[in-house]
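Final report, closing paragraph on structural work. Over the funding period we assembled a curated collection of sequence-structure pairs, and we close with a single example.
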Amino acid sequence: MRPPSDSVVDAATALILQEIHAENSSLSSDFHSADNPNLSALDREITALDITLVAVHKRLHHRLAEARKRRNTLGAISRLPTELMIKIFLKELEEVPIKKYYPRVKALSQVCAAWYSIIHNTANFWAHVHSDFSLPAVGRILYKSRNAPLTVECGYLLTGTAAKAFVDMLIPSAKRIRSLAVSRDFAAWSEAIKLVGPKLERLEYRTTNASKPPSLGRGVGPLDRLRELTLESAYLPWSSISLKGLKTLKLFHITSEGPLTSQLWSIIAESPSLRHLVLNHVSISPGSQTETSTITLPSLRQLHLIHLSQSTIQSILNAIRAPVCLDTNVTCDSDPATPDSLPVLLSLSQTIPHIQAVLNEGYQLCINANSRLFRCWTERERYDDADAPSIEIEMPQISPYKALDWLLDLLKPPRDRRSTLTLGPDFNISEPSFADAVNYKLHFVTSLYLTTDLGVDPLLKQLGRQVTRYGTPSWPMPRLSTLNLGTTYFSGPTLIDTLKRRYKGKKGGKKGKGKGTKTANKPVELISLVVVGHQSMDEEYQDEVEEILGPGVMDWDMDDEDFDEDYSYDDDIDYWDEPYYGDHLYSIWD
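Its predicted structure, as stored:
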């Protein structure tokens, strides 16, 4: 039976209302409800209830129609072959966090009897185990999963007894574990070594014992199915285990028992589809020196070489080519034997040959520099945040001015792009190489954020003076439209003098006065000037700034309210995902 259409329901409603009004009029005339207040009140109450009843019926018809429509849709899906249904369900569950997995499975199984039967009789839907599950639930999962490949996560457990019991329950099924993740908070991480099996495709093993890292994988064979490997304070017997076809290689805090250079080259060379290469605080011993041909990694998207010696970093950069790498982080440790870090930058240019094109093509370029760290990244409309191109360089033995100079030689940004330059608290703007960059190389900067603890008067004076190159006068940073001075120190007269020289006669200021020499590179209009907490900027200076720039351009916060002195565009980098802690799964439903 098909549900009534909206027009039928509306017509029926109108007819019922007419009958209600007619009956109420008849009752009114028969009982003279006007002479009887009690009857009059009852008439109104009856009418209101009848109208409510009609509305409820109408909503019910709509809900029935929608329910039938959804049921018909699901009915068509239910008629698909079982094998195809299983593939659809597994794809739907693929990215679900393990501790939300079974609630989602339960929701799917409750749609209809056919789906219930498919899910409860397919072992692959019962192959996810977390240490936070109760032991009876784990036993139930292992029984229902039969011989299906297992995904196991050992997360936070408070007591070693419970953690060991969890591991003991899984040991008989270790040979079918496909994915194993052991958190540093797992109380029995040493016992979990027994879960490393020959069919592993993904292994993430983290411990807190950096001084004495455990060895994994002894006696389990070549681990030739492994595709994702993440180790923290743990290691594999590099000489006896052959790793091939990796897509992810991430090693953290392996200060002893790290791979030899030759072993690392072998792993990389045998993994042409490698997408993520992260080496963070890893000891890589040179071993016997052998000639190594250049290794091209066409799929590499992430290259992090953090807290390694400069010689190690340079040897890695010289050995690989990453034509599409977007995320690069290079942090050199101090190395007295190699005091000049500039060769690392030159090697980086060779490793990532498209670096210039990537940075120039970006939607918005962001540069952040202080005395040790230099970071450059782009914000692009066609990239997710995780894939936004970025370069981060930290070298205690190279000045950020050299790094900035190296980058500026690569940049040829289009005129319509936006670019932000942030200078950190200890960035010395008086450095001669930076002064030269302000005059001639930072012409593309549209926003300048200063957080330096040093005075910025020298930079302000530079911005207020034209420079001549090849006989042509021009302004430094001619596209600068946003200037954020924050809490930096400067003198009011210097700021006023700079604004007069640079912007007098522009929109909002007094016209016809102090326009200065006409140039082919006139500065654009300043649309935002931010000053925070400066007592020296009294009302006289504020009025003068408004006279020069026009109203509404300057934002001055005398009390330093809502201003974070530690604010930086240099976001913290997460090198791994934190484990998800959700609701406990105490039992597995039937």
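Confidence is low (pLDDT under 50) at residues 1-6, 381-385, 507-519, 560-590. The two ends are 35 Å apart (CA to CA). We thank the funder for supporting this effort.
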